[in-house]
Amino acid sequence: MATPPPFDKRSLRRAARNARWVHWLSRRWLVFMLVFLFLYVGLALTAPVLMHTGHTRAADALYKLYAPLCHQFAFRSWFFFGEQPAYPRAASGTDWGTFEEYASRDPFFEGVDLYQWTADLQLRARAFRGNEEMGYKAALCQRDIAIYSAMFLFGLLFTRVRRWLRPTPLWLYLILGLMPIGLDGFSQLFSYPPFEFWPVRETLPIFRTLTGALFGAMNGWLAFPYLEESMREISASAQRKIAHAEALLVELRAEPGSE
Predict the structure, then answer these.
(1) Which residues pair with 80 in a beta bridge?
(2) CA atoms of 80 and 93, how far apart (whole Å)
């Protein structure tokens, strides 16, 4: 049996076509990233709009879609179409009406001790979507919305500086990105059972938003320049593969008996 040639026109055309796709995608990675972040935040904010307009089944699908990705606690979420934009727990020291005050008027929380950190409270606060008085919550918590919105906004800025911006120094990422969100989040976490290292501390929406936004922006500054560099290398490699495949195709066409 004759040994097949190492290259044939069909495989070379396929290789060139695949390399062109890789080149096209690598040149547009930031567009895809921005579209993803826009939809990720946008759909989370669409859920309360759907609830308000009576499209509860579509809203329920969005809440379920985001449920594995966020705790969705009502007292740590933004609300729309209600009396307040948020309903923090009384432990936060908020000047707004508290979650306990409003939730006590909703039959959904009947029989739940709203002031104790119990599994029942957490499950109900997670499942609660809202009501006419409070409005309806976003499908992502305040901190998550801030994180991904900041990444999106940084991505828009990065479109203008991508040619020269270098990744943030690690020390700056630790100080501005990780430290604020870590102090805010862990000081809250360790005040609750089973830790209870100090009196209960519940974070105010403004702190959740600020620390989340810093974390998101610094993540973008750290990751996007590295991604840009990697995608440039992938694009260059794809261009070399395209040129190589096309050169071999020219050689095959020049051989005797070729089409």
Answers:
(1) 136
(2) 22
Residue 149: closest CA among 221, 35, 41: 41
The alpha-helical segments, DSSP class H, found in the chain are 9-27, 29-52, 56-66, 99-103, 119-127, 142-161, 170-172, 179-189, 205-254
| Rounded Cα–Cα distance for residues 74 and 8 (Å) | 61
φ and ψ at residue 79, rounded to 5 degrees: -120, 150
Of the candidates 139, 137, 155, the residue with the CA atom closest to the CA atom of residue 41: 139
Would you call 136 helix, strand, or coil by DSSP?
strand
170's CB contacts (< 8 A; 6+ apart) are: none
On the CB side of 203, CA atoms within 13 Å amount to 25
Q: pLDDT in tens for each of the 259 residues of the chain?
A: 444 455 677 888 898 899 999 999 999 999 999 999 999 999 999 999 999 999 999 999 999 999 999 999 999 999 999 999 999 999 999 999 999 999 999 999 999 999 999 999 999 999 999 999 999 999 999 999 999 999 999 999 999 999 999 999 999 999 999 999 999 999 999 999 999 999 999 999 999 999 999 999 999 999 999 999 999 999 999 999 999 888 888 877 776 655 5
Please tell me whether residue 79 adopts helix, strand or coil conformation: strand
By C-alpha distance, which of 170, 154, 152, 171 is closest to 162?
A: 154
d(CA 218, CA 225): 12
Q: Report yes or no: 62 and 46 within 8 Å, Cβ to Cβ.
A: yes
The CA distance from 15 to 131, in Å, is 56
CA 163 to chain centre: 24
Residue given tokens 């309360």 in the structure block: 48
